[in-house]
Amino acid sequence: MNSQLSFKGIYTEDAFTPNMHDEVNEPPHYNHGNIQCIDAMREMLGEGFDYYLQGAIFKYLWRYRYKGKPEQDLQKAHWYLELLLETVRTKYGGQNGKG
After folding, report:
1. 60-68 long-range contacts, Cβ below 8 Å, gap at least 24?
2. Where are the chain's structural domains?
3. Residue 26: pLDDT over 50
């Protein structure tokens, strides 16, 4: 596992507005201390991290119609999908899996 991998993807449909919480890319309740929660999860789960990401994507796609913030839930699903893509590319050296 590449401990240097640190996902910094952002959802960019709207321009960044200073002094506002970014609930999709950097929710303040997931950043305490010197490590982002997602980075701690990656280290803790090791090879299982891919499955965690799949579950998170599924969760946000499942609930987007029912929780009152459908666009935010879809943005979060997209964020986790981008992280899964980056993780898979790093793990498999950019192979696209065709064949």
Report:
1. none
2. 31-92
3. yes
Q: Is the pLDDT of residue 1 over 60?
A: no
In terms of pTM, does the model score above 0.85? no
| 31-52 per-position pLDDT tens digit | 667 788 899 999 999 999 999 9
User: Look-up: residue for tokens 């990656």?
Assistant: 42
Q: Which token pair is 83?
A: 């992280």
Provide DSSP, 46-95: GGGHHHHHHHHHHHHHHHTTTSS-HHHHHHHHHHHHHHHHHHHHHHHTT-
- Through-space distance between the first and last CA atoms of the chain, rounded to whole angstroms: 25
Q: Using the structure block, give the residue that is written with the tokens 């913030």.
A: 69
Query: Can you tell me which residue has the tokens 């321009």?
Result: 15
Helix axes 49-63, 37-45, angle to 10 degrees: 130
